[in-house]
Amino acid sequence: MDLSRELFALETTDQGFLVKMSDWNEGIAAQLAEVNQIVLTEAHWEIMLFIRQYYQQYKHLPNARVFTKAIAKTFGEDKGNSRYLHKLFPDGPLKFACKLAGLPKPPTCL
């Protein structure tokens, strides 16, 4: 089975972000994770679903500092810190949480 077939049938940006948030589902998230060499755990899902809810509520994405503080406020200091988030998303917690959650690329991310 070609894992990337369904994913690449969807419209993505040059950096692999979904163009339409409505294309996202858990299967697409799993494919995006595999393409980005991330093995999803419950901890990843917790952060991905959190950032989706944040985006739906506030209609924008936070910068990395606000993202970390919002996670700390919701889940506690043990999860709302950059060390924990970098373990989950080593190449950039905010950028990759958004990418796997089917959200746009945060404006503050390179």
SSE order and pairing:
Elements lengths: L2 H7 L16 H10 L6 H17 L5 H12 L6 H7 L4 H8 L10
Helix pairs in contact: 1-2
**What is the CATH class?**
Mainly Alpha
CA radius of gyration is 13 Å
Number of helices: 6
Number of strands: 0
CATH architecture designation: Orthogonal Bundle
Shape: globular
Summarize the biggest pleated sheet.
Answer: none
- CATH-derived topology: Arc Repressor Mutant, subunit A
Beta content comes to under 5%
Q: Mean pLDDT score, rounded?
A: 90
Report the order of strands and helices: HHHHHH
Q: State the fourth-level CATH superfamily.
A: DsrC protein, C-terminal domain
Report helical residue fraction: 55-70%
Structural class given helices, strands, pairing?
mainly alpha
How many domains comprise the coordinates?
A: 1
Gap from first CA to last CA = 33 Å
Low-confidence stretches: 1-5
Descriptive report:
There is one protein chain. The protein is an all-alpha fold. The chain has a single domain, classed as Arc Repressor Mutant, subunit A, CATH 1.10.10.370. Helices cover 55% and strands 0% of the residues. The chain contains six helices and no strands. The protein has helices at 3-9, 26-35, 42-58, 64-75, 82-88, 93-100. The longest helix has 17 residues, at 42-58. The protein is globular. The N and C termini lie far apart (33 Å). The model is unreliable at 1-5 (pLDDT under 50).
